[in-house]
Amino acid sequence: MTTASQDAELLRRVVEGDHDAFNEIMRHHEDRVFSVCLRILGNRERALDAAQETFLTTFRKAGQFQGNSALGTWIYRIAVNTCYDQLRKQKRRRTEPMPEHLQPTDLSAEDAVESAAVRPEIEKALSALPSDFRAAVVLSDIEGLGLPEVAEILGIPIGTVKSRVFRGRRLLARDLGNQSP
Amino acid sequence: MREYELELIASLAEGTLEDETEARALIGSSPQLRAEFEAQVRALERLRDESMVTMSDTERAALRRDVWSRLRSATTSAGSRVPWYYRWVPAAAALVVVVGVLSVLPRSGEDGALETAADVTTTAGAAAGALDTDDAGGEGGSEAPAAPTAADERALLYENEVQRLRSERLTDFEAYDLEETSGSEEMKQCVATAGLSDYQLLGTISDPTAADTEESGDARNLIVAVPNDSDLATGPVALVDLLTCELVHLEE
């Protein structure tokens, strides 16, 4: 069975209410969805929220999947759009950050140390990029996806992806290119 | 730096050029361009060194628990939602009883018969009131005011949220830019599915009734919509569940 037909079969089972099928989809994609969201949002808790929204949307729209792209590509597209929504929300809220000593304790913090984390200098450099550039750089240079897939995920032409990646990389080079690793 | 030069240097840095002659000549022509190239190579190496971030066991468990919790909650609320016409069922039942009883009574105008009919009406009214109370904490039926039900409390929360949106709409309400939002077409369809095809979308908000549950209070899962010829100030505002596309609140 091909990957495309496996994807279609999985989604057909999800639409029919097969919880195991949806669990399988989550298991297969949750780490990359979380990784992409964390690189774009720069915060584990918000990345977790975005991943949650992504899978809820995936479940709700399972019946609308046309099969024109790979299931993973479709899910990452939902994830990136969810992250854009969160960034827009954050921008419009314009709230002041809470003083550090008043920040609630992150219950998953200790646990998170054991899992792979974003290096602070990378996180800082990424967060300084415009969100469009950031998503393109994250998908292409960190997640290692090909330009056609990035174009599909972002819903833009390949030429635009290239331009965003190159420009994003150029901005990153100012921060990261002059630091020792 | 021109677009073409940028592309050439970036492609050379990532190693995807088939013929590097022109690019090498370009970076050899200027110390600034060479520095740019070297900085891009270093940045790219560092980005590619980043391994995929994985979730911790706690985060993974929380993600799965929360997703399933919200899916179950959506399914339950979708299944338990009562159609609008159900509120008239008790009144209709009472009317049928009254008409039925009156139709079998002798038309002689005897006092006894009238008293009986009056008794039946009262009883039927009380029954309707009782059913009303069972259904939605409605009006009447018993002398003491009925305690607010969960449905009443939800309605109140929705009403308060709509009022808050009205009062804070210029500073806090996040309206969607429909041209930019890829999900807007789907949201429009969702609103149409809720029977509000002549409504326009204003944005999305968190469900105020989800704040006290395990659901994330920060997740925006209600669509805010108003009729095409009105706005948030003039209403009436409708709230549609983004997950189930059902109308959860409509201002009168």
Question: Quick one: overall form of chain A?
Answer: globular
- The computed structural class of chain B is alpha+beta
Oligomer type: heterodimer
Extended strand count of chain B: 4
Could you name the ranges of chain B where pLDDT drops below 50 across 5 or more consecutive residues? 112-145, 170-182, 212-218
Kindly provide the radius of gyration of chain A, computed on alpha-carbon positions and rounded to a whole number of angstroms: 18 Å
Write the layout of secondary structure elements.
The complex is a heterodimer of chains A (181) and B (252).
Chain A: H1 3-15, H2 19-41, H3 44-60, H4 71-93, H5 109-114, H6 120-127, H7 131-142, H8 147-154, H9 158-176
Helix pairs in contact in A: 1-2, 2-3, 2-4, 3-4, 4-8, 7-9, 8-9
Chain B: H1 3-14, H2 21-28, H3 31-49, H4 57-80, H5 89-104, H6 111-136, H7 150-168, H8 184-193, E1 199-206, E2 220-227, E3 238-241, E4 247-250
Antiparallel strand pairs in B: 1-2, 2-3, 3-4
Helix pairs in contact in B: 1-2, 1-3, 5-6
Structure explained in plain terms:
- The complex is a heterodimer of chains A (181) and B (252).
- Chain A has 181 residues and is an all-alpha fold.
- Chain A contains nine helices and no strands.
- Chain A has helices at 3-15, 19-41, 44-60, 71-93, 109-114, 120-127, 131-142, 147-154, 158-176.
- Chain A is globular and about 50 Å long.
- Residues 94-114 of chain A have low confidence and may be disordered.
- Chain B has 252 residues and is an alpha+beta fold.
- Chain B is 53% helix and 10% strand.
- Chain B is built from eight helices and four strands; from the N terminus they run ααααααααββββ.
- Chain B has helices spanning 3-14, 21-28, 31-49, 57-80, 89-104, 111-136, 150-168, 184-193, and strands spanning 199-206, 220-227, 238-241, 247-250.
- A four-stranded antiparallel sheet of chain B has the order 1-2-3-4, with helices on both faces.
- Chain B is elongated.
- The chains are: A mainly alpha (181), B alpha+beta (252).
- The interface between A and B is large, with 59 and 48 residues.
